[in-house]
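[recover] target loaded
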C-alpha cells in the first residue's frame, strides 16, 4: 500500500498545513518566553496559575499529537522502505513530504521543549510568588496583631481616663456643694454676728446711759451727804 494513498498521509498533510499556518506556535504565541517574562512582572499569582494550567493542557495535547505523528512517520518510513525494496523507485514528492514532516516534527518538538521549560519557569515563579504571598500574609498578620494590641491598650487608657474624669467631676460637684453649703453657713453666721453686734451696741448705749444716770445720782447723793455732814457739824456746835 502506497503512502500517497494511505489515510495517514492525509493526516500528515493536514498536520503540515496546520504547522505551516502557525499551528501550536500560533495557539501558544501568548506564552513565548519573552512575552511570558514581560507579563509575569505585571500579573498576580492567580494569572500565573491560569497560565500554568493552560500551558500544561497544551503540552499534554501536543505531546499526544507528537507521539501520533512519530508513529505515523515510522509507519510511513517503513512503507517507503518496503516500496523502495519492491519497486526500487523513488518518489521525490514523497521524500519532500517526509522531509517537511520531519522538519515540522522537529520544530514542534523544539516548541514543546521550549513550552516545557516555560511551564517549569512558570511553576517556579508561581511557587516563589506563593511563598512571597505567604510571607506577606504572615507579616500582615503580625502587624494586625500589633495594631489590635495597640488598639486594646488605647481603649483601656481611654476607659481609665473616662473613669478618672468621672471621678474628678463627682469630686468637683461634691466640693461645689460643700462650698455652697459653707457660703450659706457663712452668710447665716454673718447675719447672726450683725444681730449680736447691734444688740451689743444697744446694750453698751443702755449701760452708758445707766452709768450717766448713776453718776448723777451719786453726785446728788454726795451733795446730800455734804449737806448732812454740815448739818451735823452745826448741831454739835
Amino acid at each position: 500500500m502506497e503512502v500517497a494513498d494511505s489515510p495517514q498521509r492525509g493526516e500528515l498533510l493536514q498536520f503540515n498545513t496546520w504547522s505551516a499556518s502557525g499551528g501550536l506556535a500560533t495557539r501558544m504565541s501568548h506564552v513565548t518566553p519573552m512575552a511570558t517574562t514581560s507579563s509575569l512582572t505585571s500579573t498576580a499569582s492567580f494569572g500565573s496559575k491560569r497560565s500554568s494550567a493552560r500551558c500544561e493542557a497544551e503540552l499534554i495535547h501536543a505531546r499526544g499529537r507528537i507521539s501520533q505523528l512519530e508513529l505515523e512517520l515510522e509507519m510511513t518510513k517503513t512503507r517507503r522502505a518496503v516500496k523502495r525494496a519492491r519497486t526500487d523507485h523513488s518518489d521525490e514528492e514523497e521524500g519532500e513530504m517526509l522531509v517537511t514532516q520531519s522538519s515540522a516534527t522537529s520544530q514542534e518538538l523544539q516548541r514543546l521543549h521550549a513550552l516545557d521549560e516555560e511551564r517549569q519557569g512558570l511553576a517556579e515563579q508561581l511557587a516563589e510568588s506563593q511563598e512571597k504571598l505567604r510571607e506577606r500574609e504572615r507579616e500582615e498578620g503580625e502587624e494586625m496583631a500589633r495594631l489590635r494590641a495597640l488598639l486594646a491598650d488605647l481603649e483601656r487608657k481611654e476607659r481609665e481616663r473616662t473613669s478618672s474624669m468621672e471621678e474628678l467631676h463627682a469630686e468637683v460637684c461634691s466640693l461645689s456643694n460643700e462650698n455652697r453649703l459653707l457660703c450659706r453657713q457663712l452668710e447665716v453666721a454673718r447675719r447672726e454676728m450683725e444681730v449680736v453686734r447691734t444688740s451689743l451696741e444697744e446694750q453698751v448705749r443702755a449701760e452708758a446711759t445707766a452709768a450717766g444716770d448713776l453718776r448723777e445720782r451719786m453726785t446728788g447723793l454726795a451733795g446730800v451727804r455734804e449737806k448732812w455732814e454740815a448739818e451735823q457739824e452745826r448741831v454739835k456746835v
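[recover] notes: Residues 1-46 have pLDDT under 50 and may be disordered.
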